Amino acid sequence: MHKPRMQLLASFDIASLEYLDERGHTTQALPDFATPDTLVAFYRQMALARLVDDRAVKMQRTGQLGTYPSSLGQEAIGVGVGAAMAKEDVYCPNYRETGALLERGVTIQEIYAIWGGDERGQNFRHAREDLPLSVPIATQMLHGAGVAFALKYKHEQLGEPMRVAVTTGGDGSTSRGDFYEAINLAGDWQLPLVVVINNNQWAISLPRSEQTACKTLAQKAIAAGIPSLQVDGNDVIAVREAVGDAVERARRGAGPSMVEAVSYRLCDHTTADDASRYQPEQALKEAWSREPLRRLRSYMRAHGFWGIPRKKKCKGS
């Protein structure tokens, strides 16, 4: 029996982007935006996000807040995403986005109000058109596609400058129908949408290895005709570069993109969870050695712009 002839119809590759390795050493020349002042600002925002999260967890434990989702270990993703967006763009977030919210001008008081049960916290004083946090998994991606359609319509029909919608979700969101519907719509209609997936390895207690057979989450966008990239989610420079390129691509009318940022959740899924029941102790220990603040701090210290500068001694003193 003869084997039927088969013709290759399509093939694809998924690239990975990194600038700082686990020890804070450069793996390639840094992009132009990565000046000392910018990197110090990134570090400050990541440290602030960690402090806000830590205080929120403590407030929840004492009954001052409701259930809270920390972003411990994932601060580079939020800060990188927020820094890549223009003020006029529209953010459609999920619920684990402290760093991005701070970058977008959301105040600490507003963040605590949201999780304290006061919906007025979602009426952002500065990010007026950004959408509220979305707790249902992946629904914010459909919101993002809808917003992107509206932005494209306003650009094409009303002559307004092109604005971009950015939506974020966890690795678990890529297993939901909402995710596939959103990227299929964005790819077909060439919407100005950027989808960022925070692959923190855990969908509550379900490890990424048991959630999908895909080698990467980035490749899921290929079926929708969307270019995609995987980045080191603990490298804030790589996240800012990848998301920034995707935003600018959408802004010039070239359509949607997806970025998978690989990180690790160093905390419970929320304050209603106990991750010690399922996270392997050794994997968690290793993940701490790769966390984003330590990595950027190592780079800044090695290049002389970390810490308090020493006063030069006068000659003869």
Features:
317 residues, alpha/beta
Major sheet size, sense and barrel closure: 6 strands, parallel
Computed structural class: alpha/beta
* Order of secondary-structure elements: EHHEHHHEHEEEEHEHH
Enumerate the spans where pLDDT stays under 50 for 5 or more consecutive residues.
Answer: 313-317
Sheet with most strands: strand arrangement: 1-7-8-4-3-2
Mean pLDDT: 95
Q: How helical, in percent, are the residues? A: 25-40%
The total beta strand count reads 8
Total helical elements? 9
Measured distance between first and last alpha carbons: 95 Å
How much of the residues is beta strand, in percent? 5-15%
Question: What is the chains' assembly state?
Answer: single chain
Question: What spatial form do the alpha-carbon principal axes imply?
Answer: globular
Task: Round the Cα radius of gyration to an integer and report it.
Answer: 21 Å
How would you explain this protein's 3D organization?
37% of the residues lie in helices and 10% in strands. A hairpin with a 2-residue loop joins strand 5 and strand 6. The chain contains nine helices and eight strands. With 317 residues, the protein is α/β, with parallel strands linked by helices. The C terminus is likely disordered. The strands form two sheets. It has a six-stranded parallel β-sheet, sandwiched between helices. A two-stranded antiparallel ribbon has the order 5-6.
